[in-house]
Amino acid sequence: MKEFGLIGRNISYSFSEKYFAEKFQKENISDSTYQIFDLDSIEEVEQLFRNPNLIGLNVTIPYKEAILPYLDELDHVAQEIGAVNCVKIINGRRIGFNTDAYGFEKSLEPLLEFCHQDALILGDGGAAKAVKFCLNKHLINFKTVTRQGDLKFSDLTDELISNHLLIINCTPIGTFPKVDAYPDIPYNSISSQHLLYDLIYNPDKTEFLKRGEKKGAKIKNGLEMLILQAEKSWEIWNSSL
């Protein structure tokens, strides 16, 4: 039996296990399983890697960067991004990939308009690194907003919001079960020209997206990105490399 799974912390909300179970059933894949591995610390991944049946892992919050020292090799995209959300194990070697970038780019592209030249990225974890990679690729200028970085949430003015028509939430703020939480930005300055993208997919419409929608903005959650990155991961796990 080929074994696959997702590692992260406090990830009982994840749709990945259900997604792959349904995929395996729909596509008559009977030799594979996918499960959640909720790890208190990244060191616990070493025990998982000792499993000879383990073929691949997805990686989520907060281990997309912490996983790097446990890998033997990175593909060129993961190396450039500096974060990994997909690991393939082949002949005992652990190879890191980033399929977040693929999923984000493919789900964002149809929504982009000429006015979306400047972006605000909320948060600066592993997922944000994939987002930056994609924005650079599309020549979209961006500023990163964090609690303690060069640009803090308290620095966000009406003018900054008005001048950055693409706002991407890469923080876990608003994830189930804390669905009433939202990033602290001046929502009154959101307009119908804005595009608000939230990497969160549970709930399907976060408070961040609801507040943007009320102001007429286009909104997008992270579900399509999740599906695209999952399918890309499956493709990598089953490729010969």
TrEMBL record:
Name of the protein described by the UniProt record: Shikimate dehydrogenase
A Pfam family reported for this protein in Swiss-Prot or TrEMBL: Shikimate_dh_N
PANTHER family associated with the record: BIFUNCTIONAL 3-DEHYDROQUINATE DEHYDRATASE_SHIKIMATE DEHYDROGENASE, CHLOROPLASTIC, SHIKIMATE DEHYDROGENASE
Organism: Moheibacter stercoris
EC number: 1.1.1.25
Pathway(s) the chain acts in: Metabolic intermediate biosynthesis; chorismate biosynthesis; chorismate from D-erythrose 4-phosphate and phosphoenolpyruvate: step 4/7
InterPro entries: Aminoacid_DH-like_N_sf, NAD(P)-bd_dom_sf, Shikimate_DH-bd_N, Shikimate_DH_fam
Keyword NAD set for record: no
Keywords (A to Z) from UniProt: Amino-acid biosynthesis, Aromatic amino acid biosynthesis, Oxidoreductase
Molecular function in Gene Ontology: shikimate 3-dehydrogenase (NADP+) activity
Domain Shikimate dehydrogenase substrate binding N-terminal residue range list: 6-87
